[in-house]
Design goal:
The protein is α/β, with parallel strands linked by helices. 33% of the residues lie in helices and 23% in strands. It has two domains: 227 residues, FAD/NAD(P)-binding domain (3-Layer(bba) Sandwich); 108 residues, D-Amino Acid Oxidase, Chain A, domain 2, CATH 3.30.9.30. Strand 1, helix 1 and strand 2 form a beta-alpha-beta unit. The N and C termini lie far apart (59 Å). It binds flavin-adenine dinucleotide. This is Hydroxylase.
Length: 381
């Protein structure tokens, strides 16, 4: 396989946005390497709200904003806050300029915008070593080794295999785990769900645990039961065993004394999936630029989910593409330095917001959430 000038690792929102932007700028000497075997291999993810100055801005520069708007759901920007007794304590209307789109739709828009031969599926990066010239050498799980690139971009998410050649930083467990469940349209609880939880996002905060319900593009719901757990807690549970997972959530330690509505929600939830939440720390965003390699998106700054992750990742892609265009393919080290100087403060702010959000959500009373996080979210009663 010919060596590309720029190797992008990871076809998530960040890597794909970068590929599309390079394509738009006529910088075509890149190849994207993705570990998934094909476009449909990934487990479908949840709904994402795309913000004007970051995600939307990147889509505009990528010439994809009109396509995005075909799928964007402004009605699902509604937000409500409740307590465990079933009281709604705060709500905000629809129509905010942060429309929702399913992750799978966003990925499809981006995938369709990049020539098919620029994406190499089934290429899981195993490790990166440094050659005699101190430039990165890529070792893939399928046995392929690649060297001689001018730049390697790690857009390979939280557990980036590119990161170790740039910084020793490793994500740390936040002490929080989301157990995701699903209520599909054919679920007998669906009508109650739609009536009680409505469009958009409904966050319930009580007793230092949370429930987040979120309506998806097909009208179904994703639910995140947010708990404080030891690291690896859910590895000890067989989540395929619905009854065991539901009984655990219904126990007195978790949601046992929440209103019947929430207990019914648990009794009907299916397709459980555990998300252990990891974060880099603000202090990690201070590395010296490395010749021939950089990071963007979660690989650079994974944080506790704060509603900004995809947006920040796409803003990184835009900044990096702009710097590459400005400095040219002969001066990629200068481009990386400039990009990282712009990325660091945004990443530090995102990690901080993740910490503030987690600190505000895992509280005893939703009013405390409003006091702590309301101003940061632009919420007012
Ligand atoms: C439960 C949960 C809910 C979230 N909700 C939101 C939300 O509502 N809004 C929001 O903005 N953000 C949300 N986020 C965060 C968001 O998902 C991420 O910030 C975003 O996906 C980062 O994009 P990325 O492209 O950098 O990384 P990823 O989306 O992680 O993409 C990385 C890509 O690299 C590939 N890859 C990984 N390792 C390798 C390898 N070794 N070799 C080759 N390819 C590899 C992966 O398969 C993937 O395609 C949430 C996160 C979680 C965990």
């Amino acid at each position: 396989m010919a060596t590309p000038e720029i190797a992008i690792i990871g076809a998530g929102p960040c890597g794909l946005t970068l590929a599309r932007l390079l394509e738009c700028k006529g910088i075509t000497g890149y190849i994207l390497y993705e570990r998934d075997e094909g476009p449909d291999a990934k487990r479908a993810g949840g709904s994402l709200d795309i913000h004007p100055e970051t995600g939307q801005n990147a889509l505009r520069h990528a010439g994809l904003f009109d396509k995005f708007k075909e799928h964007a759901r402004y009605a699902d920007t509604a937000f409500a806050l409740g307590d465990k007794d079933g009281n709604k304590v705060f709500e905000m209307g629809e129509g905010r300029d942060a429309p929702e789109i399913d992750r799978v739709e966003l990925r499809k828009i981006l995938l369709d915008s990049v020539p098919k031969d620029k994406i190499k599926w089934g290429h899981a990066l195993k490790e990166v070593s440094l050659g005699q010239d101190r430039k990165p050498v890529l070792h893939f799980g399928n046995g392929m080794t690649l060297s001689g690139m001018r730049l390697v971009v790690g857009a390979d998410g939280a557990w980036s295999k590119v990161r170790p050649v740039i910084t020793p930083a490793m994500p740390q467990f936040s002490g929080k785990t989301y157990l995701e469940g699903r209520i599909r349209r054919d679920n007998p609880f669906y009508d109650t769900m739609a009536k009680e939880f409505g469009s958009g996002m409904y966050l319930t905060v009580s007793d230092e645990r949370i429930s987040i319900t979120q309506r998806q593009g097909d009208g179904s719901y994703r639910i995140y039961f947010g708990l404080q757990t030891p690291e690896g807690f859910f590895r000890t549970l067989d989540l395929q065993n619905l009854e065991a997972a539901r009984n655990m959530l219904l126990s007195s330690e978790y949601y046992g004394d929440w209103a019947e509505l929430y207990k019914d929600l648990i009794r009907h939830s299916t397709h459980f999936w555990a998300w252990s939440l990891y974060t880099l720390s603000k202090e990690d965003l201070n590395w010296e630029s490395v010749s021939g390699a950089t990071l963007c998106g979660d690989a650079a700054h994974v944080t506790i989910p704060n509603g900004e992750g995809v947006n920040t990742a796409m803003a990184d892609a835009l900044d990096l593409a702009n710097s590459i265009e400005k400095h040219g393919i002969e001066h990629l080290d200068d481009a990386v330095k400039e990009y990282e100087a712009r990325m660091f403060p945004r990443a530090i702010e995102s990690i901080l917001q993740g910490e503030i959000m987690a600190d505000a959500m895992f509280v005893k009373d939703p009013q405390v959430f409003l006091q702590k996080f309301g101003p940061a979210m632009g919420l007012s009663n």
